[in-house]
Write a structure and sequence with these properties.
The complex is a heterodimer of chains A (438) and B (470). In chain A, 23% of the residues lie in helices and 36% in strands. By secondary structure, chain A is α+β, with helices and mostly antiparallel strands. Chain A folds into 2 domains: 216 residues, 2-Layer Sandwich (PmbA/TldD fold); 212 residues, no CATH class. In chain A, the strands form 3 sheets. In chain A, strands 1, 2, 3, 4, 5, 6 and 7 form a 7-stranded antiparallel sheet that branches. In chain A, helix 1 packs across helix 2 and helix 3 packs parallel to helix 4. The termini of chain A are far apart. Helix content of chain B is 20%, strand content 39%. In chain B, helix 4 runs parallel beside helix 5. The chains are: A alpha+beta (438), B alpha+beta (470). Chains A and B meet through strand 2, strand 3, helix 2, strand 4 and strand 7 of A and strand 2, strand 3, helix 2, helix 4 and strand 4 of B.
Chain lengths: 438, 470
């Protein structure tokens, strides 16, 4: 069973009391417990089961403007005592930093709304096995599929965040995740693709057969790929790639990157950074949302933020420390974005596909080719050549490259936005990028 | 060495008994106990930004029968907790019976010392060096706008208890020092990053000449990039410098030669054993036995002593890297490659220090032979799709080659190639093999483990360079 609030609060209070007692001027602590169970299948039979049960504790102690932190998985009082003493000893010799402090009291969350993030349903391993059997049965129905691997994970977590200014709150969350990776083979090639579904509530998880069929379809269509020549071409990003652009954007507007001066979006507030049709929103209070939260990792209340309005940058993602550096108030984004999305565009998916007589549709990228200091972007890619709105043939062993500054201004979004993950985007087109191939 | 039982109601005898009882009817498995202590100190934006200490303790209990692996972990070492895990494993494997393999090779060689690098040096001495790094770089040149420097140290103690009570232990130190510098000139910003690390003490790292070298290198890379032009796009010849660029070998070849992907036949290499997969003169080994290297291990995380495994010898595929589970199913032996990030994770066959050995050509000869191509000296990360065999890595320092001469630096570009065929495109192997500076972390199935790479300069006939200039 997952530890209840009472247990976590008692540990948190013990830490705060002790820290105060040995001389800390301020302290904050997070105590969490998480249980997860995973069942793995391969080629329609059980391959592994995995159970994890983990407690964790992290404490920050302050002495005026000095701060240091410790973390541990050992929650015995005796161990906690040793660690807090060690932490405070370290704090004493750590240099002062004028920006170190607990969050402003008046920004702390004082009302917790029920976002329905916890489903107490227990999905027994036998039921996971049944689900995975059905999934792999449908995933392997085509004889070009030569390997299937799938898994089902159930996770239940609980946490308490407390600080010496009296903040003490936390809540339970759950997640259920099913995934399937398939390998297909023909005389020319072997290809891999995947599909997954991750939800707060068990009843929202995708049907096993749908997930298996989709993974198989996405893999088989990649067989016998060709390499294309190097050229400038319009690129259509599948939703699973276009949401990655949003994540890159979010990293570039974190207060830490801005304060350090290491972002290509520094000093761009109130300036045009996207095409003027583009709106980007971060909404923490979506019911059952995968990224939903009542407060951020410092206890600061998080409200909906419009990050981009008609293409103009309106907000950074601000935490307490970097906020003080930039002379901005925390907007509850210590720990990053919550449910981040592009508002949907005006054009249908079909029309986007037909917009150019020839374009490249990208379904997967590999490599870490985003440079957030310069905005340069260059990654390996896999996808399809599109002619007159139809997939003509699969393409691989190519790279796509550009610079975010130009790419963001040339984004066209379809109207097919769905809220599946914590970052969501419609299908996206960017014109004028460079493909390197033959 | 940690005593995992002195603060627990669980005695060593209880543990032995429960392990034997649980694994009795299984093919393999063990109780893995781990205690780690780690420290990280970060200087950023002119200040000591964070100093963190963490301690972690826990066990992972694994039982394997036939192809099924049951795993359970907890960070509470107690009678109840181990008993729960045991029940959990038994229920997964209830209908599958095996015969326990008690055999495990032994060696008394050690590749690093039993030390705790964190405790050996005071926090003050490390803070002092970080502050000196900041001051040194900012004084060095007016274009320096940001400096980040960090120390990370760790000591990990493990004990493996097998059915029958056999116990294997290891104490592993690991340290790392990293410097990142951002320069700004004429409105352009570029960063340079350099680091060093290994399984050793901080002794040398705190000496002036050591940390200064790291600073100079980070500064040099950033300066080169300030002058960089857009990279070309398309297929061309590529000369790779020695050392860290061997992450090409790691991504393109290494992952595809890990036992699990080949047992499952999902690797592009699974049916190529004994076949020619590389040009003559290309020999690649995976070596866990080099003293104090980041990827070295005295024993792996299943208790098998590590070794130097020849993967490709003069172009011919000779061996895969194996853990006990995949070795048993493929009817071969473990190569001491069974690794896990920590007790929270299952064991997988992984790389240690992956190296291409020297040939007899010089880097000069390679550059001179290229009419149009690029010379890649340093890389950021890489990634591979082991099924299609396609891999990428990102240049962080590279130059054009025109008519046999090194030209202007070019912007960071991704290089993409095909793993199974890339080594056949290697047309020259240099005489200058070099180990990387000790900074690699390899990710697989959500688990990161420290690794090393090494190679001489090599000339690749054809690779796709992902620049923007057509």
């Amino acid at each position: 069973m997952i530890k209840d609030q009472e247990f976590l609060i008692s540990k948190a209070s013990y830490c705060l009391d002790l820290a105060k007692k040995i001389g800390a001027t301020d302290a904050s602590v997070k105590v969490g417990h998480s249980i997860s169970e995973t069942v793995n299948f391969r080629n329609k039979s059980l391959e592994a089961s995995d159970r994890s049960d983990g407690l964790g504790l992290s404490i920050e102690t302050y002495l005026g403007k000095r701060r240091s932190s410790i973390s541990s998985s050992n929650l015995l009082d005796e161990n906690i005592k040793t660690l807090i003493e060690k932490c405070f000893e370290t704090t004493k010799i750590t240099p002062e930093d004028e920006f170190n402090s607990l969050p402003d009291k008046n920004l702390l969350a004082n009302q917790i709304s029920n976002l329905n993030l916890y489903d107490e349903t227990r999905f027994e391993n036998d039921k996971k096995i049944k689900y995975l059997k059905d999934l792999e049965e449908s995933a392997s129905s085509d004889n070009q599929i030569i390997n299937t691997e799938s898994s089902f994970t159930e996770n239940k977590s609980n946490f308490i965040l407390a600080n010496s200014d009296g903040f003490c709150d936390g809540y339970r969350t759950s997640s259920f995740t099913s995934s399937c990776v398939t390998v297909a083979k023909d005389e020319n090639s072997m290809e891999r693709d995947y599909e997954f579904s991750s939800k707060r509530h068990l009843s929202d998880i995708k049907q096993a057969t749908d997930l298996g069929n989709k993974a198989a379809m996405q893999t088989i269509r990649k067989l016998s790929p060709k390499k294309i020549g190097s050229e400038k071409i319009s690129i259509i990003f599948d939703k699973r790639i276009s949401k990655g652009m949003l994540s890159a954007f979010a990293s570039a507007i974190s207060a830490s990157a801005i304060a350090r001066g290491t972002s290509f979006l520094k000093d761009k507030i109130d300036q045009q950074v996207f095409a003027n049709s583009i709106n980007v929103i971060d909404k923490p209070n979506i019911i059952k949302g995968m990224g939903s939260q009542n407060f951020d990792s410092e206890g600061v209340n998080s409200n909906t933020l419009q990050l981009i309005e008609n293409g103009i940058l309106k907000n950074y993602l601000v935490d307490t420390y970097n906020g003080k550096k930039l002379n901005l108030k925390s907007n509850g984004r210590s720990g990053g974005t919550t449910n981040l999305y592009f508002e949907k565009g005006n054009i249908s998916y079909e029309d986007l596909m037909k917009k150019n007589s020839r374009s490249l549709y990208i379904t997967e990228t590999i490599g870490h080719g985003s440079n957030l200091v310069t905005g340069d972007y260059s990654v390996g890619a896999t996808g399809f050549l599109v002619e007159d709105g139809e997939f003509k043939y699969p393409v691989n062993e190519i790279t796509i490259a550009g610079n975010f500054k130009n790419m963001f201004k040339n984004i066209i979004l379809a109207n097919d936005l769905e809220f599946e993950y914590s970052v969501n985007s419609p299908t996206m087109m960017i014109e004028g990028m460079t493909v390197a191939g033959k | 060495m940690s005593n995992f039982f002195n603060k627990s109601d669980l005695t060593r005898k209880d543990a032995d008994k429960l392990v034997s009882e649980t694994l009795n009817n299984c093919d393999d498995g063990e109780l893995y106990l781990e205690e780690s202590k780690s420290e990280s100190i970060l200087l950023d934006d002119n200040k000591i930004k964070s100093s963190n200490y963490s301690s972690d303790l826990g066990f992972g209990f694994r039982a394997i029968s036939n192809e099924v692996v049951a795993y359970s972990y907890s960070n509470e070492i107690s009678k109840d907790s181990l008993k729960n895990s045991s029940e959990n494993l038994k229920s997964t494997l209830k209908s599958i019976k095996g015969t326990y393999n008690h055999e495990i090779p032994k060696s008394n060689k050690k590749f690093y010392e039993d030390i705790n690098p964190i405790e050996q040096k005071t926090l003050d001495s490390k803070l002092e060096v970080l502050n000196k790094v900041n001051e040194f770089l900012r004084k060095k040149d007016g274009s320096v706008k940001q400096v980040t420097a960090s120390f990370a140290g760790e000591q990990k103690s493990i004990e493996i208890i097998r059915s029958g009570g056999e116990s294997l232990t290891d104490v592993r130190p690991l340290i790392r020092f990293n410097v990142s510098v951002m320069l700004e000139k004429n409105g352009r910003k570029e960063t340079g990053v350099y680091g060093i690390g290994g399984r050793q003490s901080y002794d040398d790292y705190l000496k002036n000449d050591y940390w200064k070298n790291v600073c100079e290198e980070a500064f040099r890379i950033a300066s080169v990039n300030l002058e960089s032009k857009p990279a070309p796009a398309g297929e061309m010849k590529v000369v790779l410098g020695p050392g860290w660029p061997a992450i090409l070998i790691h991504e393109a070849i290494g992952h595809g030669l890990e036992g699990d992907f080949n047992r499952k036949k999902t690797s592009a290499f699974h049916n190529l054993m004994g076949e020619k997969v590389a040009s003559d003169g290309v020999t690649i080994v995976d070596d866990g036995t080099i003293d104090n290297r980041r990827g070295s291990l005295t024993i792996d995380d299943e208790g098998t002593p590590t070794e130097r495994t020849v993967l490709i010898e003069n172009g011919i595929l000779k061996n895969f890297m194996q853990d006990r589970h995949n070795a048993r199913l493929m009817k071969t032996r473990s190569t001491g490659s069974g690794r896990r990030e920590n007790y929270r994770h299952i064991v997988l066959p992984r790389m240690r220090n992956t190296m291409m050995l020297s040939g007899n050509q010089t880097q000069d000869e390679m550059i001179k032979s290229v009419d149009k191509g690029i010379f890649a000296v340093s890389f950021g990360g890489g990634q591979v799709d082991i099924t299609s065999g396609k891999f990428v890595f990102n240049c962080t320092e590279a130059y054009e080659i025109n008519n046999g001469k090194i030209g202007s630096p070019i912007k960071g570009a991704t290089l993409i190639g095909d793993g199974p065929s890339i080594l056949k495109e290697v047309s020259m192997v240099g005489n200058d093999m070099m180990l990387d500076p000790g900074i690699g972390t390899c990710g697989k199935a959500g688990q990161g483990v420290p690794v090393g790479v090494a190679q001489p300069s090599i000339l690749i006939n054809k690779m796709t360079v992902g620049g923007t200039k057509l």
